[in-house]
TrEMBL record:
<dbReference type="Pfam" id="PF01841">
    <property type="entry name" value="Transglut_core"/>
</dbReference>
<feature type="domain" description="Transglutaminase-like">
    <location>
        <begin position="181"/>
        <end position="280"/>
    </location>
</feature>
<dbReference type="GO" id="GO:0006508">
    <property type="term" value="P:proteolysis"/>
</dbReference>
<keyword id="KW-0378">Hydrolase</keyword>
<dbReference type="InterPro" id="IPR038765">
    <property type="entry name" value="Papain-like_cys_pep_sf"/>
</dbReference>
<dbReference type="InterPro" id="IPR002931">
    <property type="entry name" value="Transglutaminase-like"/>
</dbReference>
<protein>
    <submittedName>
        <fullName>Transglutaminase/protease-like domain-containing protein</fullName>
    </submittedName>
</protein>
<dbReference type="GO" id="GO:0008233">
    <property type="term" value="F:peptidase activity"/>
</dbReference>
<keyword id="KW-0645">Protease</keyword>
Length: 330
């Protein structure tokens, strides 16, 4: 899938000037801008021509597959309608390809929610499916209410956090590290459970849970796999990535840590046909105290709910796992 029109510098909003319409082709006026990071989606319109640039049509957006498809299974994406999937794929494409500003046709918003609520709703699910889309996108991004006119149509302007070369290089380094970790799974780990236990232990035993001095611009998976320290997002995203790369269907879920009454993220995964819950960050803290990281591996829904309250949008969408792998489970 080709890149769309890039206009403007870094995070500033771009006001699109009027354009002439030639058949199905929109011709943009000449803009004397060379640096660019803005992506335009033009719904079902065929293309946009200016300086040799094309746009992305709706079917192309709906058909987009992540360049990191081996790291995600799209558990939440499968529960979205067509317009929500359009938004999901558009933001995923922008985040994977370094765009900070995107314009979406207003008709993709179905009117069931406020536009900003719908954006947050969809981006939150994307961040829990994909380890490469940060969980703080909806708080750090400028999900503005700006609606701008172009060629007689309304477009919703979304400003994402600008991601530079350092961010991209750390993301790629983490991806390569993940490949080597998955390749190191011993031959005797020949079931989903054994593979998951090996990878989970790797995450819990090779990192330290930190909060002081943590920057929200960090790459959570790189924090853990490269630097050996992370917050809960880093643990959850790394488990999502490693498990999926090993062929284990996995995603994460947001909510509240009951003991601290603060935001938290956990995982759920399907092992040998059954769903279970996992909290690698909690087991990493256990590991630091000298205990085996097995207190939060393979929880049932009820057991996970003892320490974690699922956010409303996840409570009815996450699997209600009945079985448990905890040692003292009956």
């Amino acid at each position: 899938m080709g890149k769309g029109k890039v206009i403007g510098t870094v995070a500033a909003a771009v006001v699109i000037p009027a354009a002439a319409v030639v058949g199905a082709i929109y011709i943009l006026p000449l803009l004397n801008i060379t640096s660019s990071n803005t992506l335009y989606y033009f719904g079902n319109d065929a293309s946009v021509a200016a300086d040799g640039t094309i746009s992305l049509g709706k079917e192309e957006v709906l058909g987009y597959s992540s360049k990191y498809s081996d790291t995600m299974t799209g558990y939440f994406k499968a529960q979205l309608n067509e317009n929500e999937t359009y938004i999901y794929n558009a933001v995923m494409y922008a985040s994977e390809n370094g765009y900070s500003d995107i314009f979406l046709p207003e008709d993709v918003f179905d009117g069931g929610y406020d536009r900003l609520q719908e954006l947050e709703y969809v981006i939150t699910f994307l961040s829990c499916d994909s380890p490469f889309v940060a969980h703080n996108y909806t708080t750090n991004s400028k999900l503005t209410g700006n609606v701008e006119q172009f060629a007689g149509k309304s477009y919703h302007h979304i400003q994402l956090e600008t991601l530079g070369e350092e961010y991209t290089s750390r993301r790629e380094a983490a991806y390569e590290k993940a490949k080597s970790v998955v390749a190191s799974i011993p031959q005797e780990c020949n079931t989903d459970r054994k593979k998951a236990q090996y990878l989970y232990n790797y995450v819990a035993e090779n990192s330290v849970y930190v909060t002081d001095g943590y920057s929200t611009r960090n790459v959570p998976i790189a924090d853990l796999l490269i630097d050996g320290k992370a917050i809960c997002d880093g643990y959850a995203d790394t488990v999502t990535m490693l498990f999926n790369m090993a062929g284990i269907e996995t995603a994460s879920a947001n909510g509240i840590n009951n003991s601290k009454n603060e935001g938290h993220t956990v995982n759920f995964a399907k092992l040998d046909g059954e769903y279970y819950y996992f909290d690698a960050s909690a087991d990493s803290i256990i590991n630091e105290k000298g205990f085996k990281p097995a207190f939060y591996f393979g929880m049932s829904w009820a057991e996970a709910s003892d320490s974690f309250t699922f956010a409303d949008e996840f409570a009815n969408r996450c699997p209600k796992a009945e079985k448990s792998l905890l040692p003292d489970s009956t």
